């Protein structure tokens, strides 16, 4: 990969991993726009039961929450870690051990949550763990603000991609996530994910072994955008992917005065989006029932599972 702007060195000098391409000298301790520096930082590594049923099942998903994020979503539900405020540094060796420990806890899979800004190290840890007998599927859980060439580093190592598609409208992406290019970048990234994992597979329990599940979190007042996203995904990928429509948006203190983001999506708004998905012909999808919008899907970022016992 000579000349590749991603640079293969573990410590990421002149970082170009994500679309921000900020060029931070992370090897020297400088932080990128994602908030990440030289070392991997994670805030939690534990069984997680709040993903889609085919991911969490009854045994849980082995979720590893990474600190930092290249997006700056004003409504971020995980601000504590996305801004790099929570978490502890771990080595590649320790990260590989964590993967093995989660498998020993009978996790259905290893779930890498927002790991894109550590891709070279994550790739190395996965190779180490697989060499030691890691056999459960690996899930890559991402905002989709990724470069396809970066995602190719994971080809053959990731079994399930779990990306968001937040917006197709660049203005919304700019206003809400400080990334006007998000729609273009996310569509390119998802296309690469589907190329790598073109068909879904499940085991006898209904747990996904391979596949792509694209998530969309309905934002209050933005049903039309949600419909555009459903239509785009269905027309582009059909039954090669699953679509997960979520209603769990919860206003944070940062947006409490916003006329739209300061409230939750209504039951009627969510029903309109679900009805549209069914009318459009979506057959492979997930939706949230009842009062899930009142529940907290945010775990405590208390360093559980980060350190060796």
Can you tell me the overall shape? globular
Q: How far apart are the termini?
A: 38 Å
Share of helix, binned = 25-40%
Cα Rg = 18 Å
- List the uncertain runs: 1-9
The biggest sheet amounts to: 10 strands, mixed
What is the count of helical runs? 9
**Total DSSP E strands:** 10
Task: Name the structural class.
Answer: alpha/beta
Percent strand:
15-25%
H and E string: EHEHEHEHEHEHHEEHEHE
**What's the average pLDDT?**
93
Summarize the structure.
This protein has 309 residues and is of the alpha/beta class.
Task: Walk me through what this model shows.
- This protein is α/β, with parallel strands linked by helices and 309 residues long.
- The protein has 9 helices and 10 strands.
- It has helices spanning 53-56, 79-82, 92-104, 119-131, 148-151, 170-177, 182-196, 223-237, 267-280; strands at 40-48, 61-66, 88-90, 110-113, 138-142, 160-163, 201-202, 208-217, 242-246, 285-287.
- It is globular and about 50 Å long.
- One of its GO terms (molecular function) is oxidoreductase activity.
- Residues 65-198 form the Radical SAM core domain.
Draw up the topology in text.
Layout: E1 40-48, H1 53-56, E2 61-66, H2 79-82, E3 88-90, H3 92-104, E4 110-113, H4 119-131, E5 138-142, H5 148-151, E6 160-163, H6 170-177, H7 182-196, E7 201-202, E8 208-217, H8 223-237, E9 242-246, H9 267-280, E10 285-287
Parallel strand pairs: 2-4, 4-5, 5-6, 6-8, 8-9, 9-10
Antiparallel strand pairs: 1-2, 1-3, 7-8
